[in-house]
Structures are given as C-alpha cells and as structure tokens.
Amino acid sequence: MSQTNDTPAMLAINNLECSRGDRTLFRQLSYSINAGQCLHIVGANGSGKTTLLRSVAGLVYSPKGKIQWQGENIQSNPSYQSTMIYLGHSEGLKNELTSVENLEFYSCLDGHSDQSHVDGDLAQMGILECADLTANKLSFGQRRRLAFARLLHSKAKLWILDEPFTGIDDAGRALIETICVEHLDAQGMILLTNHRTLSQSRLAPSLAVLDLMDFQSSLDHS
Amino acid sequence: MSQTNDTPAMLAINNLECSRGDRTLFRQLSYSINAGQCLHIVGANGSGKTTLLRSVAGLVYSPKGKIQWQGENIQSNPSYQSTMIYLGHSEGLKNELTSVENLEFYSCLDGHSDQSHVDGDLAQMGILECADLTANKLSFGQRRRLAFARLLHSKAKLWILDEPFTGIDDAGRALIETICVEHLDAQGMILLTNHRTLSQSRLAPSLAVLDLMDFQSSLDHS
Amino acid sequence: MNLINAFFSSIWGFLNRSFHRLGSPREFFKISNYATPIFGLLFTVLTGYGAYLGLFVAPADYQQGDSYRIIFVHVPSAWLSLFIYMVMATASAIGLIWRMKMAFVVAICSAPIGAAFTFLALVTGSLWGAPIWGTWWEWDARLTSELILLFVYWGIMAVYYAFDERQTAERAMALLAIVGVVIVPIIHYSVEWWSSLHQGATVFRDGGPAMPASMLTPLLLMALGFTFFYGYVLFLRARNMVLDQERKSRWVRELVKSSRATGEAQ
Amino acid sequence: MAQNTFYLFARREWQLLFRNTSALVQPLCFFIIIALMFPLSLPAENELLTRIGGGVIWVSAVLATLLGLESMFRSDYHDGALEQWLISPRSLPLAMLGKVFAHWSCTGLLLALFAPLLCMTFRIPPDQIWVLFLGLMLGTPSLSLIGAIGAALTVTLHRGGVLLAIIILPLFIPILIFGAGMVTQQAIGGSTASQLYALAAILVLALTLSPFAIAAALRTTIN
Amino acid sequence: MAQNTFYLFARREWQLLFRNTSALVQPLCFFIIIALMFPLSLPAENELLTRIGGGVIWVSAVLATLLGLESMFRSDYHDGALEQWLISPRSLPLAMLGKVFAHWSCTGLLLALFAPLLCMTFRIPPDQIWVLFLGLMLGTPSLSLIGAIGAALTVTLHRGGVLLAIIILPLFIPILIFGAGMVTQQAIGGSTASQLYALAAILVLALTLSPFAIAAALRTTIN
Ligand code: HEM
Ligand SMILES: Nc1ncnc2c1ncn2[C@@H]1O[C@H](COP(=O)(O)OP(=O)(O)OP(=O)(O)O)[C@@H](O)[C@H]1O
Ligand SMILES: Nc1ncnc2c1ncn2[C@@H]1O[C@H](COP(=O)(O)OP(=O)(O)OP(=O)(O)O)[C@@H](O)[C@H]1O
Ligand SMILES: [Mg+2]
Ligand SMILES: [Mg+2]
Questions:
Q1: What pLDDT, in 10s, does the model give residues D199-219?
Q2: Ligand 2, pocket residues at CB < 6 Å
C-alpha cells in the first residue's frame, strides 16, 4: 500500500481487526485516505466490507485497532460526525413522510438552516414527480435516489457509501458518478463498496482499491 | 413482438394496464412467454417493472387486462401458484431462524417431503459456513444467496426474479446465471429485471427483452 | 304456472337490472339526481307530521308527564343505529363478493351517519335516564353495548382513513364491518339476556305493541322519517364521493363542463 | 398436504417462539404484572379484591393477548414472508389456523393454566376458580382467532398497534362479558350455563370463520 | 443548534403523528376502552365502581402509555433512521427528549385531559377528580420518559413488545402506587402532599437522567 508519510492523512485506519461471533473477518488492516481520494473496497460476499464501512462510520466498535480522523479517534467525536455521511442498505427514510419531508429532515439534521434547495435536489436526482409521494410508495430505485439526494448539498468531507449503485438504472449511475467526481474534485473523500469493478467508470482517475482478501489471508498464518 | 399464434403460450399477458394512485404506469401491455424463454424487463427507475412482476405473481390485482397461465386466469389458481416462484427485494427470511431452518421451511412450503437436500443447496450457493447462523447475522449478499438456494430444487416452471443480481459478487452472479440456464434448458421460464444489459451474459441465447418505455409512450396519445 | 314463472322471472330480471344499474357509479349518479330530493321531501313531511303528532297531539304519560316525549327521538335513532349497521354490513358483503364499487361507497358513507345516530341514541337515552332512572349513565348491558357500537363505527372509519390506497381501504373496512356485525344481536337481545335497567322490547314483541296508538303512530312516523333522512344524507355523501372517485372519467368531466356552461349562461 | 399445511405453519411459529425462551414466558409475565397492578392501585381491603378478582383476571388476559397480537404478522410482513405465503399453493386459511394455534398455545393456554394460581393470591373461592379456568380455556382461543383478524388488517400500518386495539377490543368485549359474567354468577350462586354456551358458540364460530377472515384480510392489505 | 435539535426531532415526530389523524386519537380511544372493560367485567354495583375508579383509571393510563411505547423506535430502527441519528453530530439525548416530548403530548397529555370525563361516569367526587388529574399530569411524562428507555433497550429484539412490558412495568409501579395512592388518600380525607412530592421528584429525576439513559441504550443496542 503506497502511503506518503509526510502529510498527515485525513482518515487513518490502524491495525484494525473485526470479529463477528467466533469469526474474525479481517485483521491488521491499515490504510489511510487523503483528500480527493476514493477508496473502493472489494471482497466476496460476507468478507466484511459492510462491517468495515460501519466501523469507519462509528457504528461498530472494535476494541482492536484504531480509526483516526485528523489524528483524533472517531468514537463520539462530533467534529468527525459532522463531516461524515454514511449511506448503507437501509436508507433511513420514513415510510409515512413524503420525499420532500424526508429530505428536509436530513437537511436540517446536517445543519442547513434553509431548506429551499430540497426541490432542486429532488429534480436533480430525477424524482421530482415523487416529491409528494410518501416514501413507502417509491420504487426501490427511487428510494435509493432519494437517499442520495442528501449528498447533493452536504458539507461532509467523507462519504461512506455501501453499494451505492444497487437498484439504480444506467442514467442514475452516471448521475451518481458525476456527483462523486465533483465531490472528489472539491477535495472530498469517498469510501465505497461495489461488486463490479469501477476501473471503467468516471471515478477511475482517483480510485484506490482495497481487497479485503489480503487481510484474510493473514488469518491463516496466525 | 414476434409471437407464433399456433402453439398456445404458457404465460400470456393480455392488454394489461397497471396504475398506482393517480399514475398509470403502463397500458396495453401484451406479451406471451413460452417454455424455455427468459424475458428481461427493462425500464428506468420507477417505470413499473416491479409492479409488473408482482402482477404476474398475483400479488397485485389490476382490474384491466388479463394474465393467463395455460389459458386460465392466474388469480387464486393453485395449479399456477404451485408452479411459480417469486423472489423480490424482500427475501422472506426470518431473522430469528438459521439459514438451514429458513430453507427447510420453504422447501416444505414448495411441497418437498424430504429435506435432506438443504445442506447441499447451501453448499452450492457458497453459504454452508453460515448454515447455523441466524439470518439477521448474514451479510446482504449472503441473504440474497440464501433466498436463491430455494430455486435449486424447486419444481416450479416459472421463476419471477426481481433484480436477482443485487448485492451478489461476481462468483455468485456466474452461479446464478448457470442455475438459470439449466432451468431454461429444462423448459423452464424466467421473468426477470436487471438494470444492466444481459446480452453479454450466459442467458443471452434464450433472452427476450421487453422495454416498459414502449407501453408508456401510448399513455401520451390517449 | 307459466304465468307465475314469467312473473317471478321478470321481477328477478328487474331486480337484477336495477342492481347492476345501481352498481355503476354513473347510473347511480343519474338515479340519485331524482332520488335525493324525493328522500329529502319525504323526510321533511314525515318527520314534521310525526313531530307535530308526538309533541302536541299525543297525550302526556300518566307516570312520566311530558318528559317521555323524548322517546320520539330516542327510539328512532336507536333503531336506525342498528339498521344502518346492517345496511353497512350488507353493502360490504356485496362489495366484497361482487367487487362492486358502489356497495363500498354506500358502506363507507353510512358509517359516519350511523355513528351520529348511535351518538344521538346515547345522548337522548341518558337525557331521558336522568329523570327516570335517577342517573344519566349506568354500566348496564344495553347501554354499554350501544356504546361499543359507537366504537365499532369509529373503528371502521379509522380503518378506512388509515389506508391511503382506496381499494385496500374499502376492502379492509368492509371486512371489519362484516366481522363487527355480531354486536347487533347482542345489543338487541341484551335486555333479555341480562337483567337490565333498560326496558324490554315494547314495539316489536309477541302480542303486539304495548303502547297506545296515539303514541305509536308518531313514533313510527318519526322512525320512517329518520330512515328517509338517512337515505337523503347517504345520497348526498355518496354523490360527492362518486364524483371525487370518478373525477378522471369522461362522464364527470363532461358533467363539470356542462355545469360550467350553464353557470356561465346564467 | 392439507394437514401438513397446518402443521408446517404451527411448527414454524413454535420454532420462532422457542428460539428465545424468554419470549415464551413473556405473555405470562405480562399477565401476572397487569393483574398485580390492581391490588397495588386499589384501597387495601381483602374483601374488595376477592370480589373484583375474577374480573381483573379476565381483563388482564384480554390485555395480555392483545399485546402479543401486535407482533403476530408484523415481522412476516416486513421481511416479505407474508407475500410468499400469499402466492403459495397452500391453503392460506389453514396455514393461518396453524399459526394462530401455535400462538394461542404460548399465550392463551399458558394464561389459562396459570390463572388458578393467581386466583388463589386474590383469595377467590375454589368453585369460582374452576369456573374462571373453564371460561378462559373456552374464551382465549376465540380472543386469539378474532384478534388475528385485526392484526392482519393493520399489519401494513404504521402505529398499527393502537388501531388494532381499537378495532379489536370492542369485539373482545362480548367474550369478556360472558367470561367475567360466569364468575360473578357463580359467586352469587346463579347458573353459569348460558354464559358457557355463549362462549362455546363464539369459539365454534371463530374457529370456522376467522381463518377465512384472516386470509381475506391479508390478501386485502398486501398488494 | 442545541435548541434546534430538540425542536427538529419533536417536529418530525409530530409530523409522523399527525400524518394520519386517526393515529392521534388512538391512545385516547384505547384508554377509554380499557377503562370501560372494568365496569363490564365487575359485579354491577354502583358503590364498587366509585371506590375502584381512581385505580382503574391509573392502570388504564399506564397500559395505554405502554402500548404506544412499543412502536416508538421500532420503525426508526427498521428503516435505518436510528443509525443516522447515532452518527449525526447532534446531541442524541436532546434529540430523544424532543421525540419523547412530542410522543407524550399525544398520549399522556391527552389522557390526563380526558380522564376527568371518565371519572364522572364512574361517579368519582370532584375533589378526587382534581387530585387524579394533577397526578396524571405529573406522572404521565415520567411514564413516557422511563418507558422510552425500555423501548430503546428492546428495539432490536423480535417480540420486543412483551419484553418491554416486563422490564418497564415494574419501573412504572412506583408511579402507579403514588398516583393511585393520592386518590385513595383524598377519598379518606388524608393528605396527598407526600405522594405529590414523590411524583414531582420522580419527574425531575426522569427529565434529567432518562434522555441520557435513552441515548446510552440506543448506542448499546445498535451495532
Ligand atoms: C344512554 C341510555 C340509553 C341507551 C344507550 C339506549 C339504547 C337503546 C337502544 C339501542 C334501543 C333499540 C333496541 C332495539 O331495537 O333492539 C332502545 C330502544 C328503546 N329505549 Fe333506550 N336507551 C337508553 C335509555 C333509555 C331510557 C332512559 C328509556 C326510557 C325509560 C328508554 C326507552 C326505550 C324504549 C321504549 C325503546 C324501544 C324498545 C323497543 O320496542 O325495541 N331508553 N334504546
Ligand atoms: N400512490 C401512488 N401515486 C402515484 N405514483 C405511485 C403511487 N404508488 C406508487 N407510485 C409509483 O409507481 C411506480 C412503482 O414502480 P415500480 O416499483 O414498479 O418501479 P420499478 O420499475 O420496479 O423501479 P425500480 O427500478 O426503481 O425498482 C413508482 O414510480 C412510484 O413512484
Ligand atoms: N455472530 C456471528 N458469528 C459468525 N459470523 C458472523 C456473525 N455475525 C456475522 N457474521 C459474519 O460476518 C460477515 C459480515 O459480513 P459483512 O456484512 O460485512 O459482509 P459484506 O462484505 O458486506 O458482504 P456483502 O457483499 O454480502 O454485502 C458475514 O460473513 C457473516 O456471516
Ligand atoms: Mg455488505
Ligand atoms: Mg423494482
């Protein structure tokens, strides 16, 4: 893993080990990400990608290893939390609220005092026609798009995206890629998983790949 | 749509129209599928693919149009229900039961009197190591694989699969394609959606594509 | 023999046809154009005459004086609260079995009216009970089961408004209405099954009504009048609902257009 | 295959219930706690408790059943299992009968078996305890069967639990009246036969009709 | 921003509650129905009802609160909203206080306001009604606050509802004893001050501590 040691990395994972039940998923995982980088985590089903992302988001705590943001531990660190967004398989949308209301809530939660951008965001994600439908009526892909609309005006530096392209059609995929590229250009960071290679995508230039396999092989040695 | 009118189609969709709320999703959709065919339904997010599949599965009832299986309406038609399997986004797995128990239940439900094949099925889907984990501990991809294990010994002729490849890694995708091809070779039928084209996949030879766009354009004329 | 057969089959045919005509929202709307004012008129005449007879002509009760006159409101509204429930349950069953849209409309439009009559029966009953029994509320079988009927009505309305897909809402409501029908015999027979404060069957009982004709006539007139009132309000509500449900259909659009045109002409 | 369907669903439900043994005794605990709340919140007089004890136990049984009903179909709805039952060729009413039976065996049956013990702490005389037990054995299956209709109707709704209570409690009330009435009758030395027959009639009705109503309700709400 | 968090979460909860207006009156209906079950299941004597009325209303209030608690965090857990709150920079205790406040305003507050009417049908004398009302106003917020801790602890569990009831009801019992005790005291002409102070003390404690307990419980159970 090529790391330049002179500039302090924004996000540093140090010797992380994650276990679930009796099973150790990966061990001695170290990696750091700098501004403008996109890290693509690959691995077979059940290899621990989601667990890694959730650890970095602070949702799973593992006693072994360290995850640091600008030199500070991420656990209950508000300055980290306010600069990080995690989007996983469950989108955190309330079925009873409309698309607009859902997005407005997250916009408030992310600290925007003004919600006028919400309609524009929905339009940009191509779901303006569903603005007043409650979320349980949305199609699978429309839900995913709604969840991603939150990224459009976020001030977060670090995006953690678990399989962002599931259920999204080709147009949507291009859209999300564009949004990600813009974020990276603005010195943002992305951590994502995807089962297909991204080397053909627009993200390729700033892409780094981390294969969880590499940290499982060490399991056999020990 | 090229249809040979002399052999009666196994599954015939006739002038189907589906609406949700005030919106008509598609109209005058007619299509028939014969043994050994795989129909790939394409369309943008929210165009109504899932609704179409659920209609064919008998979960959504639309008063306009007809869906027939071997000349009989599919509504509460046990002989149809016993030859059809629908796998959607929610897998129907009980979080509190282990993989084996979940699979055994569905095997019983599908009418198998003997459950000895269950372990082999799990092994074939590459999730034997999770056999005794309760389903809530499985990773996203492992859940999907478990749901697909049900297909391995099913006697159903018609498989209705909504985005079967979501969350599944490359090895799993190859596996599922193989299973599908075998099913088609045994004169089975498949109805599926997928956001990526399948023309490169092993399913290509028996593939037909139905674009929902074609049945939306007619909406503007009326 | 043939004649009788022909007679019955023509009656059956007529019923069948009118059933189907009523089943179509458009036909219903046409019929209701005439029926609504007729029902309204009958309601006014019958209730007016009944009230006149009841309040001014019928003699005062030798025990209760004039306070008994509340019977002319209490009994009809109590009867109607049960009658409307039966109508609602029947309509629900028809809707579920024959997938008939209008039946659901009738059922769901009946619910608030039925609830209102139940409420009226409760209020008039307790107003009447205050002087007669010396208490305005008692936890007795008839009174309590009538209160439960009010909750069943509310539950049915709550279920209808809890779903936002109309088809689902209608069918769910209909199912509940059918299940809830057990409450009706319980209310009706409660006075016999449990010893109750409330008096037993007075009008429809073996051996004829235990009531002088001077009281019975206004009572029956009022009951008939209330029934027409129910029909009147039902038609009004159902018309609104049908228009709303069919707002996208051609005949409603034409209706709107033509009424606009006449509005402009005037 | 028909008998199988009943057994298949009952077994699955038992599997789920026995998975965490604490879930198994929960309705029972709940029943006891509710019943015990009354002695705590009433003026302390022995004779009062003996008089109202039967009623309190019946109310607690109804509430305990109600609390268990809420979750009856909810998780099956959320994880898509319900859909699978709907489109399976198995008879849905029979399947639901199996499910309700398993459910009852871990709530109503347990409550009924335990109620006599509770009665003793309220110092209810043995003849009344016997009547109460009989009433609960006849009444609780109807509660589960009727309640399942409500659970099926509200399964797709947010905050369905409270709506469930509102639509179902009025239907429970006749059973409650007959069941508690039996105890009161016994206490004053009257005949309990009419209430007993009424409870039995309700049970027969519920057993034959409610499986179909549950199935119809599920077919209505899932689409 | 701090005040905002409270308001943000309270408003969201209200939005959800007001979405279907029937959900709003449901806890109230439930309260009434429970309270109604008693007169139906007890021997018919006027004086009996007047004596136990206060206790019955308190028990009903506790149960109505309990039923509403079950769904408090459940849907937020299933749709992933809870995760998002946990990793947001907002103060979680404050957010939870907002949520509980909105929840209480549509359950406990409504119940307390409605209880006097119910009391009248039980023929409870006005001075006792007043005491009961005061007790409910002080007691129900504590019920909601303490109950939310239990709801947070059991949110990830299948059939959590019943477990919730079991771990929370014992904690509710002190409140119930003081609240119902106040009414009994008033009935026999005693002083109600000590119970009043106890309820107030519990409320202050619950207000200051339980938001942190709720937040801690959520952090523990979600991972
Ligand atoms: C809140 C209190 C009351 C309620 C809820 C109530 C309810 C009812 C109901 C539901 C019926 C219709 C029964 C049926 O058709 O099967 C009815 C009928 C009747 N009620 Fe009441 N009632 C109340 C108080 C009273 C009082 C105080 C009186 C007078 C003493 C009274 C006199 C009658 C009479 C004479 C009938 C007609 C009986 C018949 O022939 O069916 N009710 N009431
Ligand atoms: N009540 C309603 N009113 C209007 N539109 C509705 C309503 N309910 C659902 N819809 C719309 O119906 C469509 C349902 O689409 P469906 O789930 O079949 O799409 P899909 O083709 O499977 O999409 P995806 O690719 O995202 O899975 C969505 O566009 C949704 O917005
Ligand atoms: N209690 C447990 N005991 C043993 N293994 C467990 C336990 N809980 C979870 N696991 C395993 O931990 C892994 C979790 O994987 P995770 O969800 O991170 O996978 P993933 O790489 O995201 O997979 P996918 O590609 O399917 O999303 C799974 O393999 C699961 O089987
Ligand atoms: Mg994953
Ligand atoms: Mg879809």
A1: 999 999 999 999 999 999 999
A2: A 130, 133, 137-142, 167; B 20-23, 25, 43, 45-51
**C9, burial (CB in 10 Å: exposed 0-12, middle 13-18, buried 19+):** exposed
| φ/ψ of residue E133, rounded to 5 | -60, -50
CB contact under 8 A, D30 and E187: no
**What residue owns the CA closest to ligand 2's atom 27?**
A140
Count of domains forming chain A: 1
| CA A98 to ligand 2 center in whole angstroms | 14
Query: Are C196 and C140 contacting, i.e. CB atoms less than 8 angstroms apart?
Result: yes
Of the candidates D37, D43, D163, which has its C-beta nearest E26's C-beta? Answer: D163
Subunits with 3+ C-beta pairs closer than 8 A to A: B, E
ipTM value, please give it: 0.84
Nearest CA to ligand 2 atom 31: A138
Do A44 and B169 lie within an 8 Å CB cutoff? yes
Burial class (CB in 10 A: 0-12, 13-18, 19+), C143: buried
Q: Per the structure block, which two tokens stand in for E82? A: 């809870």
Task: Using alpha carbons, select from A81, A82, A101 the residue that is nearest to residue A93.
Answer: A101
Amino acid residing at D150: G
Q: Is residue B146 in some structural domain?
A: yes
- Confidence grade of residue B165 (pLDDT, cut at 50, 70, 90): very high
Distance between CA B171 and CA E108 in Å, rounded? 55
DSSP code of C61?
B
Tokens of C107: 């059922």
Nearest residue to A124 (alpha-carbon basis) of A92, A156, A106, A146: A146
Domain definitions of chain D by residue range: 2-222
In a domain, B200, yes or no: yes
Identity of residue E63: L
How far, in Å, from the CA of B54 to the mean position of ligand 5? Answer: 10
The pLDDT score that the predictor gives to residue B192 is 95
Q: Tokens for D30? A: 């709940």
Q: Is residue B18 part of a domain?
A: yes
What Cα–Cα distance (Å) separates residue E151 from each residue in A90, B195, D161, E167, E203? Answer: 21, 40, 15, 10, 18
* pLDDT tens digits for range D88-147: 888 999 999 999 999 999 889 999 999 999 888 888 899 999 999 999 999 999 999 999
Q: How far apart (Å, rounded) are the C-alpha atoms in residues E181 and E166?
A: 22
> Are residues D216 and C96, on separate chains, in Cβ contact within 8 Å?
yes
Token pair, residue C76, equals: 């009809």
Cα angle D83, D84, D86; round to 5: 65
Range of the domain at A160: 11-220
Which CATH number is A28's domain given? 3.40.50.300
Closest to D76 (Cα-Cα) out of E158, C172, E66: E158
Residue C153 in tokens: 């009505």
The DSSP-derived string for C191-215 is HHHS--SS----SSSTTS-SS-HHH
**Interface list for chain E against chain C, based on CB atoms closer than 8 Å:** 20-23, 26, 29, 33, 36, 39-40, 44, 49, 121
Query: From CA A44, how far away is CA A42, in angstroms rounded?
Result: 7
Most informative mutation of A142, A148, A173 for ligand 2 (most atoms within 8 A of CB): A142
- Span B57-80, mean pLDDT? 89
Residue E39: CB partners within 8 Å, gap ≥ 6? C139, C144, E49, E122
Tell me how far apart the alpha carbons of residues A83 and A160 are, in angstroms, rounded to a whole number.
11
Q: Whose CA is nearest to atom 24 of ligand 1?
A: C125
Would the CB atoms of E59 and D71 count as touching at under 8 Å? no
Whether A106 maps to a domain, the answer reads yes
Candidates A83, A80, A102, A84; CA nearest to A92 is A102
* Whole-number pLDDT of residue C88: 96
Say if residue B1's pLDDT is above 50: no
Nearest in space to E64 (alpha carbons), one of E32, E27, E36, E33: E27
